[in-house]
Amino acid sequence: MSNDFLSDLMASISERGRGLLWRTPAPERRSGDVGDLIALCDALLSGRGEASGTAIARQILDGYRALDNDGRVGFFEALARNYGPDADRLTKALDAWRDAPDGADAADLHFASEPRRQELFRRLNRAHGATHQLVSMRADLLDLRTGRKDLATLDRDLVHLLSSWFNRGFLVLRRIDWSTPAIVLEKVIRYEAVHEIRGWNDLRRRIDPVDRRCYAFFHPALNDEPLIFVEVALTEAIPDAIAPLLDADRPPIAIDRTRTAVFYSISNCQRGLAGISFGNFLIKQVVEELRRELPKLENFVTLSPVPGFMDWLTSATDLPVTDEERALLAILDQPDWINDAATAQQMRAVIEPLAAYYFLKAKTPRGLPIDSVARFHLGNGARLERIDWQGDLSPKGLRESAGVMVNYLYRLDDIEKNHEAFANQGEIAASSAVKKLLKGESRRRLDLRLGSG
After folding, report:
1. End of a domain among 108, 133, 165?
2. Residues 136, 304, 315, 452: which is the catalytic one?
3. Predicted TM-score (pTM) of this structure
4. Which of 52, 128, 377, 401 is catalytic?
5. Which of 148, 183, 350, 372 is deepest in the core (most CB within 10 A)?
6. DSSP letter at 150?
């Protein structure tokens, strides 16, 4: 009720502001092109009235939405070029700081250095429904700024504000089940990014049975728009393949027999919030929810894809393999290799040690694991528990990861220790089974060097 009341109130203020605005022939009435929108932006920043400001903000957002891609690029260019810090104010603040540096002068310098576009975005956000539109605007910016360094500062400013507006303290965790409004369920189907949901029946199999859960974060300013959601399977043991979890004919497991919670799909829903992390908070809060509901649960694990593994196998120039093994890997793009038992066995002997090497040794220029999913879970304090050969034999799984999946284990007593070791020293927490695979790879590489000598 309170959200509806506030929404109605803001809409009423905006409408009253429009009435005031239309009584004057000021330039802020125009909204036909980029130049008109910039004039409106100037008017919004120079004004002080709440009602008229809200109405101008609505005009700017509506005018932006009517622009084509070229117009939006022009609008972004103008914001990046013309709405930086106030140079005169910043110079005065710098001079004052140099003359007599103290806390007050430091605060003045901080505020003087803020780009004017940040205040512009804050004032735009006063319009009814503006938060969602600004998130969409940032999604446009991500799509249009490719190769445009001049727009990087604009993106940084938007991220700074969105990070504050979508602070964890504002997020609400909700369980998604079959009684959830259809408008939200439709978006779960649409936003699922890991394992495609094929219609309503498939969705119901994932959220309705007694051994299935789905949770999402929502924000009060985005009605019925999930920010991120996680799908959970309750099982007896840690699974090593996705197909049995998604099998349409599988019998549900009695809840008193479940001992493992499996996070098998995590999907971000809002492209405009890319780079603003919610997943670590989501998993940890869902773990707490499940522990309260089901105290007999012992294991909290993922069954995760390895989306970049196939690219690495087929393109890395320093792959630790023999010529014969490289020739074997060359047939990975043939979809029927998996159906030949002898070939699959040969492939397993090569790929499993390479997967251990991929996770534990292959690094980005910044010294981080090259796998984005690994960076996420290891950064959350999870342990790389197991490499699952033939974990995903779907066309997508074979195409992206040669069928490999992995389990990351969230052991609550070790999460903080693992996180600190990864964040500060780059140490990767891994089980003895994974490390054993890597040792086997190291011995094999030594044999290769000795043999070649």
Report:
1. 165
2. 304
3. 0.85
4. 377
5. 350
6. G
